[in-house]
Design a protein that fits this description.
Layout (H helix, E strand, L loop, with lengths): L1 E3 L6 H9 L17 E7 L2 E7 L9 H16 L3 E6 L6 H14 L4 E6 L6 H14 L4 E4 L8 H11 L17 H16 L9 E9 L5 E9 L2 H8 L4 H18 L3 E9 L7 H6 L14
Parallel strand pairs: 1-3, 1-4, 4-5, 5-6, 8-9
Antiparallel strand pairs: 2-3, 7-8
Helix pairs in contact: 2-3, 6-8
C-alpha cells in the first residue's frame, strides 16, 4: 500500500500511528522523507505493508527527481494507494498534481484519502478540500483523521485492511519495518538537522553512516558523516564552538536510543561534497540509487 502526498502533510506521522511506534523520521519541515520505507502492521488475520514515500514535488536537482521516481514507482506497484492531504489548509496546485499522479499510476487499484490534521481544520477548509477531491479523485473514499492525536486512525486502518486483496504473509508478526538500524539512524540524524537548521542548509545535507557496531562495554558506537555542498554550510552546521553540532548530535542520539532500546555513542563529522545533489555517483553512494520498480517483498 503506497502512502502518497505532497511534502509535510503527515504521511510519516500517520504510518508511525498505524505501526504503533516511530519507524519513520518526522519533523515539522517538508521533505523529511527522501526514500521509500516500509511500515508493517500485522493483525491475527491480516498484514498490511505501507510504503512511506517522499513527498511529490517540483524537483530542482537530480535528488528531487529520484525522490519523485521512488514515490511514483511505489504508487504503480501498490495494491491500494492512500493519499494524505492536510485538511487545515486549502487544497492547492501541489495536491492536484499528486491526485493526477495517483490517478495515472494507480489505475484500477482502490484509492483512499486521509484528510489529516482534521482536528485543526475549519469547516470551510475541510469542505473545500472535499470538493477538490470530488473533482480530482471522484472514486476515492475520504476519511478525516488526526495522525498527531490519533483521532480516526484506528477506523481508517480497519477500512484499509478490508480493501486489501488476499495474499501471503511476507513478514514475521513482530517486524515493523524492513529498514536496517543504520538506515533508520541516518534518517533520525537528518531529521535532527531539519529541526535545528533553517533556510536551504538542512536540505543540502546527506547523512552517511560510516560505522555502527556494538561496544564491548555495552551499547553501540555509531560514526556518521554529514555531507554539505559548501564551506559556508559546514560552518553553519558546526556552529560557534561546535554548539550546533552538539545540539544535533544530542537530539539524534536520544531518538536513536529510543528506537534501538540501548545506549548509543554518536560520533558526528561534517565534510563538503560540492553539488552532491546533482552528482550521480554521490547519490548512489549516499543510498539514493534508483528504486526497484517492484517493491513487493520477495520480488
Amino acid at each position: 500500500m503506497a502512502v502518497a502526498g505532497k511534502p509535510n502533510v503527515g504521511k510519516s506521522t500517520l504510518i508511525n500511528r498505524f505501526v504503533g511506534q516511530s519507524i519513520a523520521a518526522v519533523s515539522a519541515r517538508p521533505q523529511t522523507t527522501q526514500r521509500n520505507q516500509l511500515g508493517i502492521v500485522t493483525r491475527p488475520l491480516a498484514q498490511a505493508i505501507f510504503v512511506d514515500t517522499p513527498g511529490l514535488h517540483r524537483p530542482h536537482h537530480k535528488l528531487g527527481h529520484r525522490m519523485n521516481t521512488a514515490a511514483e514507482h511505489a504508487i504503480r506497484d501498490a495494491d491500494l494507494v492512500l493519499v494524505v492531504l492536510d485538511a487545515s489548509h486549502p487544497a492547492d496546485e501541489e495536491d492536484r498534481r499528486v491526485a493526477e499522479g495517483v490517478s495515472a499510476g494507480a489505475r484500477a487499484h482502490p484509492v483512499v484519502v486521509a484528510l489529516n490534521k482534521a482536528d485543526a481544520a475549519s469547516t470551510e477548509t475541510s469542505t473545500a478540500c472535499r470538493r477538490a477531491l470530488f473533482e480530482w479523485l471522484p472514486a476515492s473514499e475520504v476519511w478525516p483523521v488526526s495522525a498527531l492525536q490519533g483521532e480516526g486512525v484506528a477506523e481508517l486502518l480497519d477500512r484499509l485492511l478490508l480493501l486489501l486483496p488476499q495474499g501471503p504473509i511476507y513478514f514475521p508478526e513482530d517486524q515493523v519495518t524492513d529498514a536496517y538500524e543504520r538506515d533508520l539512524a541516518a534518517e533520525l540524524i537528518r531529521a535532527a538537522c531539519l529541526h535545528y537548521l533553517r533556510q536551504e542548509v538542512p536540505y543540502s545535507i546527506a547523512v552517511y553512516v560510516e560505522e555502527f557496531r556494538e561496544r564491548a562495554t555495552g551499547g553501540a558506537y555509531l560514526a556518521a558523516t554529514l555531507y554539505v555542498e559548501r564551506e559556508s554550510q559546514k560552518a553553519i552546521v558546526v556552529g560557534t564552538r561546535g554548539q550546533m553540532m552538539k545540539q544535533i548530535g544530542t537530539r539524534a542520539r536520544l531518538e536513536i536510543e529510543a528506537l534501538t532500546g540501548r545506549r548509543v555513542y554518536l560520533d558526528l563529522r561534517v565534510k563538503v561534497q560540492p553539488g552532491w545533489r546533482d552528482d550521480e555517483g554521490a547519490l548512489e553512494r549516499f543510498g539514493y540509487a534508483p528504486q526497484n520498480r517492484d517493491r513487493r517483498p520477495g520480488a
